[in-house]
Amino acid sequence: MRFWLSIAWEKLGSGNFAGYNIVQKIAFARSLVIYEDFIAAIGEARTIFITAHVGPDGDTLGSMLGFKFALEKACPHIQRVDCVISGKMPDAYSFLPGIKEILRMETASTLLTQYDMAISVDCGSPDRLGLARPYFEGAKNSANIDHHISNDRFGKINVVETTAAASAEVAFDILKEMRIPLDANIATCLYTGIVTDTGGFKYGNTTAKVMETTAALISAGANPEYIFKQLYEEQPLCQVMLQADALLHTRFNADKTIGWAVVTRELLTQHGALDEHIDGLVESIRRIDSVLVAVVFKETESGITKISIRSDTHDIDVSAVMGVFGGGGHKMAAGCTMEFSITDAPEKLLPLLEEKVRQKLLVP
Ligand SMILES: [Mn+2]
What distance in angstroms lies between residue 315's CA and the mean position of ligand 1's atoms? Predict the structure, then answer.
């Protein structure tokens, strides 16, 4: 431990870390120690299972595939790397290289009964692994690679960097430490993870380190114009119309500091839209000048309600409110699943948000 800390200290003094603030430097020094455990575990593994949370996003898929490409390319001792998710796969990321090789738990028929090593990326809690959970827990060794503040350290090895903007940034740091050279495929996947989790480099998590990482990814072959177009400029008509409809019916509290939209199954059917087409709606509500907290309530197929929530200020921690209902995420972007119907869920959640907003407004 001491040995690694001294190496970390030396590296930090080397001038390669100009973009790091002090919190990031300390986090990096601590991470180096954990990276060693991870790298040693990879060295011993012949079969690897990579999984992530249900309802994967750009960071989830980009990090999974980035790892897959890197391990296959640089670790000849590894015989197979299976990327598997539970539940539906969104269409929006079909441009990612290797995306077709991601298996779905529901239909995968070639999985091993036990893997040497399971890696979970971008997932804060084992509950969110869905059907992949027994494979993660049954593997001989496991690593939990993530950046969510609410992460409950469920792996045997936990590389959880809460100062990182994206799991793809954590993946980049690990690959750098493993001295695996990047190529265009790895870079495209990791770039996608970072661009999606920083909202296109707009959120407060867009640090100098993020920009340095991004620069390295572009140098390695990621094409920002192409990736941006695939992510943001190719929305299906049903998505635009669904969101226009939901936005038109957005409701507000008295002083319009809380805005919420309700998406029922009926509304989705009316527009011929799928659950994934709701992505981005909560940001549209957050963008309204008076809004401090934006919420989207989505009725799920099983009749319970999923919440997606955003805070417009560092002073309101919506991840804590989601924790009350068993959810979590980041301070300014979080979510949960409520065991209430789409009509009851707002009544349960909104008073708690009202209280949070009042507390914030009372402080000068
Ligand atoms: Mn993420």
Answer: 21
What is the whole-number distance in angstroms between the Cα of residue 38 and the centre of ligand 1?
A: 19
Q: Are residues 136 and 14 in the same domain?
A: yes
Range of the domain at 317: 237-362
Q: Are 51 and 85 in contact (CB under 8 A)?
A: yes
Q: Are residues 98 and 222 in the same domain?
A: yes
Query: Residues 119-147: pLDDT tens digits?
Result: 999 999 999 999 999 999 999 999 999 99
Give dist(CA 280, CA 202) in Å, integer: 14
| Predicted confidence (pLDDT) per residue in 8-63, tens digit | 556 665 555 666 777 777 777 767 778 889 999 999 999 999 999 999 999 999 99
Separation of 147 CA from ligand 1 center, angstroms? 6
166 CA → ligand 1 middle, Å:
5
Taking a 5 Å cut-off on Cβ, the residues next to ion ligand 1 are 59, 122, 166-167, 197
CATH number of the domain that residue 291 is part of: 3.10.310.30
Which of 201, 232, 263 is a domain's end point?
232
CA of 146 to the centre of ligand 1 (A): 7
- Number of domains the chain contains: 2
Task: Using the predicted structure, report yes or no on whether residue 155 has a pLDDT greater than 70.
Answer: yes
- 270 Cα–ligand 1 center, Å: 31
